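Kindly draft a sequence, keeping tokens residue-aligned:
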Amino acid sequence: MSTASTQLPEGRYGRSEDERADRRLKVIGAVLGAALLALVGYFAYYYVGGSKISGEVITFSAVSDKAVEVHLEVRKDTDASGYCTLRSQSSDGAEVGRADFRFDQRSSRVDKVVTLRTTARGTTAELLGCHAD
């Protein structure tokens, strides 16, 4: 006695449910992958080229209990103007000074020593960020 096959003939009645689900998952994965790639590209562009002004603390020294001298190097577009925010903290981590310093020079690189006034002896000098006007 022979047994009859219970499966449908291959390819005769359209796609199976599994094939439709596989295709749907591939399309969703492609769309989400493209969106993630676009998001990473946007943030990379903003991080690398989005700011017209950036700075770096070269050195700093506490000159007294009321001031910290900071050697700051600022890179910017020649026609850009803006400011950089610096802060100083005491040895216990409390903030003892914060100030904005403007940079309006028509130069692409500004090397300047600024004095940050403090309320107590500052042991650090930290650049919080630079912003173009």
Q: What stands out?
A: The first strand starts at residue 53 and ends at 64. Helices lie at 17-49. The mean pLDDT is 86.
